[in-house]
Design brief:
Layout (H helix, E strand, L loop, with lengths): L6 E5 L3 H13 L4 E5 L12 E3 L12 E4 L3 H4 L4 H8 L2 E4 L6 H8 L4 E5 L9 E7 L6 H12 L2 E5 L5 H10 L1 H18 L4 H21 L4 H8 L5 H9 L4 H22 L3
Parallel strand pairs: 1-2, 1-4, 2-3, 4-5, 5-6, 7-8
Antiparallel strand pairs: 6-7
């Protein structure tokens, strides 16, 4: 976070909220954090002020605020909390709640939507964000970028509707990767490996492949051709895996289903 952002408020400290908090504490230790959560979470950093009574937020004017509660809990936030949000650039990581709804609820147009993914828990999230340029200035956009840099990579989207499409790829994508890894491990066990050995083989193989995609100036198609030598084992296996566009069609159907659900949640957030 930019050094100009000296105070921040976090609403909700569940898995995602705490991941954002600890990432920001590492990347911007000078930022003073206040956390509001009625469950009174026990945090590991003594420098964080934890508040369970909304009355303690009266008069608070944070530079930036993060809303990390379930969408249906957002509708029940006390007025003291909403007033504090109205004093800040408010960043929501709630699925399905658009900027118009956020602005109307807190009484301020200075709102940003961000969609992180589960890898935020290990500082490797792919987060996407949207903000109306007329409401959020360059300095505030930089503060948001700095905040989410603490949990991985961040990318701005040009249209709010793109949040749903990005959710289908970056948000749901880890689940697709985990499912693929699960089946690779099952296949390894079928070849005679013990489960722990299958897990190690598959995990490091996937990690190495992912690192090659980030470390080399080559596309996945380029890398696939590199490893699939003519007449070799990889080419033989790929001949089955992608036969008749099977994998392509399966992923297209899967991401389309995720997108459809993301759009449904945008209409009726849960």
């Amino acid at each position: 976070m930019s050094s100009k952002t000296s105070s921040a408020l976090l609403i909700g400290c569940g898995n995602m909220g705490s991941a954002i908090l600890y990432g920001a504490l590492k990347s911007s230790p000078e930022t003073r954090f206040t956390v509001y959560d009625p469950s009174d979470p026990k945090l590991q950093d003594a420098s964080v002020r934890v508040v369970s009574d909304p009355a303690e937020l009266v008069g608070l004017k944070p530079d930036i605020a993060i809303v990390a509660v379930k969408p249906h809990h957002f509708d029940t936030l006390p007025q003291e909390v909403l007033s504090a949000l109205g004093n800040a650039v408010t960043v929501s990581v709630m699925a399905g709640v658009n900027t118009a709804t956020l602005a109307a609820r807190i009484g301020s147009s200075r709102v940003v939507r961000v969609m992180p993914n589960i890898a935020a828990m290990i500082g490797q999230s792919m987060s996407v964000g949207f903000a109306n340029p007329a409401a959020i200035d360059a300095a505030s956009r930089t503060a948001v970028e700095d905040l989410f840099a603490g949990i991985g990579q961040f990318h701005w989207l040009g249209e709010e509707a793109d949040i749903d499409a990005a959710t289908a790829i970056a948000g749901s994508g880890p689940g697709f990767v985990f499912a693929f890894a699960e089946q690779m491990q099952n296949a390894a066990c079928a070849l005679g490996f013990k489960p722990e050995d299958a897990s190690r083989l598959v995990t490091q193989t996937m990690l190495g492949a992912a690192m090659m995609m980030t470390a080399r100036d080559r596309t996945p198609s380029d890398l696939k051709r590199m490893v699939a030598s003519p007449g070799g084992t990889t080419q033989e296996g790929l001949g089955v895996l992608v036969s008749g566009d099977a994998l392509q069609n399966l992923l297209a159907e899967g991401t389309s289903a995720a997108l459809r659900r993301a759009r449904e949640l945008s209409v009726n957030p849960q």
